[in-house]
Amino acid sequence: MDIKPLGQRVLVKRVEAEEKTAGGLFLPDTAKEKPQQAVVIAIGTGGVDKDGKKIAFNVAVNDKVLITKYGGTEIVVDGETLLILNESDILAVIK
Predict the structure, then answer these.
(1) Domain total for the chain?
(2) What digits encode the pLDDT tens for the residues 4-63?
(3) Buried-state track 33-51, b at ≥16 Cβ within 10 A, e below 16
(4) How far is 63 from 68, CA to CA, in rounded Å?
(5) Are 40 and 62 in contact (CB under 8 A)?
(6) 13 located within any domain
């Protein structure tokens, strides 16, 4: 299925968190926190400012980003969990 976010929204896939601690202990799924790193899958159609000028996105497809922990809406597409969030919920681009 092909999904195109609307407006200033971005479709991302979370990067799975480490299953093992620094000390070598394995964490069960219930003890893991939601990962804050994600990869941009698709960007929206864009928005316009109060003067009618198009607002450019600060991220691009395949960028690795840092996102807010609890922002966005989770969806499941073809058995894969993805997240649609506003571009403002992206905290940084990881280089």
Answers:
(1) 1
(2) 999 999 999 998 766 666 676 666 655 556 778 999 999 998 888 899 898 889 999 999
(3) eeebebebbebbeebeeee
(4) 16
(5) yes
(6) yes
Q: Give the containing element (helix H, strand E) for 18.
A: none
Helix (H, G, I), strand (E, B) or coil at 87: helix
Q: Using CA atoms, how far apart are residues 13 and 30, in angstroms rounded to an integer? A: 20
* CB atoms near residue 59 (< 10 Å): 16
Q: Is 57 helix (H, G, I), strand (E, B) or coil?
A: coil
| Structural domain boundaries enclosing 21 | 9-94
How is residue 26 annotated by DSSP? B
For residue 82, give the amino acid letter. Answer: L
Q: Is residue 52 part of a domain?
A: yes
Matching residue, tokens 């790193």: 37
Q: How confident is the model at residue 89 (pLDDT cuts 50, 70, 90)?
A: very high
Q: Is the separation of the CB atoms in 59 and 85 below 8 Å?
A: no
pTM over 0.85: no
